[in-house]
Amino acid sequence: MNRVLIAEDEVRIASFVEKGLPASGYTVMIARTGSEAIALAHSEDFDLLILDLGLPGRNGWQVLEELRGRIILTAQDDVDDTVKALENGANDYVTKPFEFVELLARVRVQLRESVSTKTTAPQTTLTAGDLVLDLLTRQAWVEGQQVEMSTKEFQMAEVFLRHPMQVMSREQLLNRVWGYDYDPGSNIVDAYVKNLRKKLGSDRIETVRGMGYRFSP
Ligand code: CA
Questions:
Q1: Which pTM value belongs to this model?
Q2: Tell me, which fold does domain 3-117 have in CATH?
Q3: Phi then psi for 182, rounded to 5 degrees?
Q4: I need a labelling partner for 207 at 20 to 30 A (CA). Which of 36, 43, 111, 197 fits?
C-alpha cells in the first residue's frame, strides 16, 4: 500500500485529505510543521509527500531543500512559485484552493509512475488513454489509428507522455527535444505543440498561461 505524508497546517485541508486518501487506498500521516515533516520523513518510509509551501517553523522551501523523493507542492496561486518549485525538485504543484479529486488524480499519477520505474523490463510503449507511442518502432496511434509524426514531434509527444499532468515550460521542452544550444527565444515549441494538437487531439495539451504546457491523459 502506498504511504503518503501530508505537511499541512490548515486543519480543514489536512482533514479532508486525511479522510479522502485512505478511502482511495492510501495510508496517510500528517505533519503540522516543516520540522515535523522532515523528522517524519527521516524516520518513516513514504512514497509521496504533499507539501504546503506556507508552513509554520520551517517553510515548504526549507523542507524541499532537505528532502528528496516524490513531492507535490501545494500553495496559493503564484506563477513564480510554480516555476521555482519545479526547478527545486517538486514533481508537481497544486494551486489552492483545490478540489480533492484534482489532488487525488495527481497523487495517482505520481504513485503510478513510481511503481512503473521499479519494474526491470525495459519499457517499449507509452500509453495514455487511447494514445499509444511505440518507442522502438517510433510509431504512434490515436484511437487505434496510426498517426504520422516527424522525429521531433514524436520526441515531444514522448516527453509529454512521460510527464502526465506536469507543467512543462517551453525551455524544458526545448532542452529535451532540441538540446541545450537552441535559442530560448524561439517559438518552435509553440509551433510543434500546435502540430501535436492537430495530430493527437487539441484537448490533450493544455496551455498553462505564463508557464508552458500540460499534458492530460
Ligand atoms: Ca499553510
A1: 0.55
A2: Rossmann fold (3.40.50)
A3: -80, 145
A4: 111
